[in-house]
DNA sequence: TTGAAAGCGCTAACAT
DNA sequence: ATGTTAGCGCTTTCAA
């Protein structure tokens, strides 16, 4: 069931050790002639190294674990593309684990990946706000790293783990500031689910920028919604139905593009002009954002780069104890047609 | 570096064999009492089976290889979601390999996956039209299957391999027929890249339906384009610029939603009314199709299901020689706002 | 039902 | 520079 190294070695008339050295790199060098002979035999026999055997002998695999909520989500997919590219460049293969945003699934995923002895783990989803969940996950990661595993998060995943940090707070603040600069004074914010830490980060950015501009944000001006089209629709409906038309916001910040997509759909259906009556902005700049009508103003996150840098960071992850690496990646506002001056 | 089975066994006062049987299923049963003791020890020590060792001993892994052109592409991501779900249900983890639509990369990917001894391989991209490439890939798959590997394709991947078949041709035909039914007589088609077999399938469907309706399709009415936004823009620009306005098509069939997205963008920019002057339809029904303006008429492919069924088919893949399984999955036309009656 | 022992295919000391 | 020889951690006959 597959040609083995010993067979190749025998065929080439050398020892398995030499064959191993000739075929699958090693510190030691092999004589030119023998090396050629071994390679010829390998090619002739169609030898393919057994990855499991190599992993066992080397006590590490050529896999990088990728943990994310949903590979079908455009943001997750973009990150995965970056991970896959960087992994390939490092001779590694990504092993995919979906968590559906469930802390428990994430914990099980980390354990599974640890059992796989993957070379590194990339956490592509946000950390959780629930302290118990966060603690459990942190402990699992620490244990994995204590065993020599390497970890990197996308967004902060606990103070002692490496991570690449998209500037969520700064980006959100810049967005809010830009909208205030357009003249908006009445804001509503549709933030992400409470269970995710990034939701709070983005919201905090908006809050601080608005406060700075002397603009208040009441509790009824903030909704939390799943980062989906449906979540966005429901949230904006709630937001508008809950108050008289004259108290509608002039600007809605949906802090996830998918959410903003839902907002746009709902407003279109209701015949509310965007940006004439309400300006709408998103967050992430998914590929589809530019194709919405009106095209969506949003905050661009370098999603693919986030993924590739996370892999690089993870592979360079120093042993626990050393200060973990932190790589900030800029987020910038992309102004498009969905925002404009408030109605007067 | 990780607790081993022997340590658990020693701690529980049993042999490694018994520990193995108690923890990681086996035909043989283990006495209730011993089993409990072993499980307790495992939990206490934090035992995690070493996947590489298990793979070596069992000579198969718990991985399913997923080969696709681009995980960042919405269609690929949706398929991956299906694969991941079905894999998880079977206790397997997907190992991702991106090919960028390159036959050579695909070949290398199959070899890599074979070296990994993955339990099964799912080919999520189209087969290639280039005979040499197709032959090489076919041979690699056959070799893998001869070694006990299991394979399933999404779309036909060679007569002797199992596959799930979205009804590309029938779906495309239905789309063309529907458009003809709306009164269109002047069609243009933007088909996928020539290197992919599905491009031909979809185009064939359109052709046969149009022929049946007595509608001709000249060579200049068909363009091949990359299934991207940019590809679509360029293709429609070519299509329109190449002829006087009065000979413009009244209906453009872009046989990939991303392509259709580009077409819509270009027409919007040119101020061409859709569907007033030109109707536009796509293929696939990506999640974003419904959010375009006008919302895109398209042919719905059950992408996620395609992925999950492919995993099931692969896991049930009989040894070579037996007739390979073939599962047809329906594609249906989804009528939205981007199509209407032709101008008169 | 349990244990002893022989691999699974490869790598890495160690020896030569 | 090459070969010898132990394992890596687990499963699985085969005996008991």
Report on this structure:
The structure is a homodimer of 344-residue chains. Chain A has helices at 5-12, 16-23, 32-45, 51-58, 74-89, 103-115, 131-146, 168-181, 197-212, 229-241, 257-270, 303-315; strands at 63-68, 93-98, 120-123, 150-154, 162-166, 187-191, 222-224, 251-254, 279-281, 298-300, 326-329, 332-334. With 344 residues, chain A is of the alpha/beta class. In chain A, the strands form 3 sheets. In chain A, strands 2-1-3-4-5-11 form a 6-stranded parallel sheet, sandwiched between helices. In chain A, helix 6 packs parallel to helix 7 (131-146). Chain A starts with a helix and ends in a 10-residue tail after the last strand. The mean pLDDT of chain A is 95. The interface between A and B is large, with 54 and 54 residues. Chain A binds a DNA duplex (16 and 16 nucleotides) through helix 2 and helix 4.
Please write out the topology:
The structure is a homodimer of 344-residue chains.
Chain A: H1 5-12, H2 16-23, H3 32-45, H4 51-58, E1 63-68, H5 74-89, E2 93-98, H6 103-115, E3 120-123, H7 131-146, E4 150-154, E5 162-166, H8 168-181, E6 187-191, H9 197-212, E7 222-224, H10 229-241, E8 251-254, H11 257-270, E9 279-281, E10 298-300, H12 303-315, E11 326-329, E12 332-334
Parallel strand pairs in A: 1-2, 1-3, 3-4, 4-5, 5-11, 6-7, 6-8, 8-9
Antiparallel strand pairs in A: 10-12
The first copy, chain A, binds a DNA duplex (16 and 16 nucleotides) through helix 2 and helix 4.
């Amino acid at each position: 069931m597959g040609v083995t190294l010993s067979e190749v070695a025998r065929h080439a008339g050398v020892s398995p050790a030499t064959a191993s050295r000739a075929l699958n790199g090693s510190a030691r060098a092999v004589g030119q002639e023998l090396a050629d002979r071994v390679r010829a035999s390998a090619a002739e026999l169609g030898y393919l190294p057994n990855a499991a055997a190599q992993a066992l002998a080397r006590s590490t695999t050529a896999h990088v674990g990728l943990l994310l909520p949903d590979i079908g989500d455009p943001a997750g997919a973009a990150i995965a593309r970056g991970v896959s590219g960087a992994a390939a460049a490092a001779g590694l293969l990504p092993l995919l684990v979906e968590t559906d945003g469930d802390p428990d699934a994430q914990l099980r995923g980390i354990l599974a990946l640890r059992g796989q002895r993957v070379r590194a783990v990339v956490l592509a989803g946000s950390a959780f706000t629930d302290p118990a969940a966060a603690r459990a996950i942190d402990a699992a990661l620490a244990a994995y790293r204590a065993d020599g595993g390497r970890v990197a998060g996308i967004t902060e995943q606990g103070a002692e783990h490496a991570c690449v940090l998209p500037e969520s707070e700064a980006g959100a603040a810049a967005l809010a500031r830009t909208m205030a600069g357009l003249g908006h004074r009445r804001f509503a914010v549709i933030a992400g689910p409470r269970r995710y830490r990034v939701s709070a980060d983005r919201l905090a950015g908006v809050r601080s920028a608005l406060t700075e501009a002397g603009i208040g944000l009441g509790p009824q001006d903030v909704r939390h919604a799943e980062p989906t089209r449906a979540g966005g629709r429901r949230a904006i409906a709630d937001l508008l139905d809950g108050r008289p038309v004259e108290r509608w916001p002039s600007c809605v910040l949906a802090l996830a593009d998918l959410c903003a997509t839902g907002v746009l759909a709902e407003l279109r259906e209701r015949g509310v002009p965007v940006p004439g009556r309400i300006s709408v902005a998103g967050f992430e700049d998914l590929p589809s954002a530019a194709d919405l009508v009106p095209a969506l103003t949003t905050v661009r996150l370098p999603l693919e780069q986030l993924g590739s840098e996370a892999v690089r960071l993870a592979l360079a992850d120093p042993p626990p104890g050393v200060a973990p690496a932190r790589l900030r990646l800029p987020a910038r506002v992309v102004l498009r047609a969905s925002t404009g001056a408030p109605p007067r």
